[in-house]
Amino acid sequence: MVLKKVEIEASLQEEQKLIKDGTLREDNPLDTSDVFLKLCDACRRGDLKGSQEALTEGANLNARDRFDYTPLILASLCGHYEVVQLLLESGALCERDTFQGERCLYNALNDKIRRLLLEYDYSKSTDPLQPFASYITSLLSREHPQTSDILVTADQESFRLHKFILSSRSPYFSKKLAAASDATSWKLPSILPPQAFSIAIRYLYLGELPNEVGGGPGTGFTEDEILEALDKISKHLEIRDLWDAILQNSDRRIARQKRTAEVEKGRDQLESWFTESVLRHKVTTTVDTASEVRWDRNNSIFADVLLRADEIADAEESQSFHLEQMFRHTAGSLNGIPLGPLSGQSRSSSPLRESRKSVLFPAHRAMLMRSEYFAAMFSSSFREAQSPGHLHIIYVDCTPEVLEIVLTFLYTEKTDIPLELALDALYTADSLFIDKLKMRAAVVISTLGSGTMSQIPTRLDAMDASVPSTTGQAQDVLDIYEVIRAAWQLHVPRLEEFAARYIAMRFESFVDEPEFEVIVKESAGRIQARQETDTIELLDDIRYYLSERFRLRFEDSGIEEMLEEDIEAAQQKALEEEQQQHGVDKPWSNPLDEGVDVGLPLQQSIALPGSMETGRIRTLDGEEVDDELAGEARNYQILLEKIDDLLDKLKLDA
Description:
The chain is built from 28 helices and 11 strands. It has 654 residues and is α+β, with helices and mostly antiparallel strands. The protein has 4 domains: 125 residues, Serine Threonine Protein Phosphatase 5, Tetratricopeptide repeat (Alpha Horseshoe); 132 residues, 2-Layer Sandwich (Potassium Channel Kv1.1, Chain A), CATH 3.30.710.10; 197 residues, Potassium Channel Kv1.1, Chain A (2-Layer Sandwich); 149 residues, no CATH class.
């Protein structure tokens, strides 16, 4: 035990030295504070309340104790499911490709906890480039469909590679392929160990380095010879970081951090190449001439397909476009399989097509196959999967701006979706089966709901500062009814909740609109074989957020504290005045004992002496009240009554 303690302390000292030198970045800092130890103890014992209290007091739930345990590892190891769930919901990290993440997953006491850890998938949320890097690496072993365009031979081994990846990642390959873009093969000197070149190529494809470089009997090369070759290759290909990573690969934590840095660097290199090659070479033409574009397969940016998107003519056609998208996701399917973007035809046959803009983007099938839609297309026997002399033109049913967003995500994992394009991006991502982009588009839309709700507009005409936008216009960016329908048809609960909250916070502006009646009918109609006792989901959500709206207003005004201190005195005074007025000698009783609801939101007006009285306040129905509290209580009742009136009008029971 003493020896073990000495080893732990020596390890911690070595780690602190590496962190101080800048060699190692501290992912899970050592924490010996009382509040953190309280959290660790609660996680060991399965004390849910104690864990919550420690988190409330500010404990760092991603720190580690002196035995190198994080709270999440302790809770998982001891089998406390509810505590694990609390930690994950509070932001605890379980990264699969880290030492702590492995301990957490593989030491979990039961499969229920392990499934919960995997469900949260924090490796992808905390390291968003991990799936991107894994996909790039998988291109080395993908056999069908074949997307490589150059064959490199080293001794008896052959490597099917991609020119655009080599060009973006290695300055050497960039210069060599720029001079011979039509090259289809390259032979390495036979004296070069193929094992060394294989490691270098895997490094260029954002793969992990092996723990051992190989060599020995049967390979024809010793380990020292392979290391020497790696040193030469890293210099020759101008990727010196490869050699540095090889030297530090024995320390797992340093190696992991080096790999994370290299993946970020590789993503940035691909992004620069994408901007300079793909976006820079896009072709802008008209709709009637787009199909006549011819692009030779042997081109300087190594593109093997052209993606086409057409501009929408006007607002009327834009509306029909959304209707078509909605039809596509409901009735537009074949044997239950969504048809996806149209190929080879436009969404309109209007004469205006001839004056509309059409944009063609050169692209690479290897990157497009990050979309399941394109992966299925290029794996089929359709003509899009063939390789003729000229590049195929594939039509994607979205605007050029949205297609550029899609391509940027596929090539770089980055998304900067302007709010005015978010709904189109949502539909397009769903059609192309890009779930991650679909989620990000939904986040952009729902971010609006995180701002203040004091304004009462009829549309989403006030954008939150955190939402990116390229137009600078805040008027009529989105229609909330389109957001609701998109949420229903694309199965995005996040948007359903956002839309209900948005309407509730501005309900007096929506409740009398004819469009609101229509959307309520649609919500009711979504229940098959509807019974009289069935509720309407949209109205249920609106009622909930409506109560939250008024409760929050009372809290913001400090009325909770006032109620605690003055409610009894206020009721006593009101009762005494009533007794004096009517000459009744009635003992005072607490209204709470009589079942009077004085909770929040208030169900009746309570005027407190000396509180918030600012003169006469007019409610939504034109009635004048003495103070803001009474006005808010009355307004809440009016809005609830409007819901009941609407249900009576529509002959719906909910």
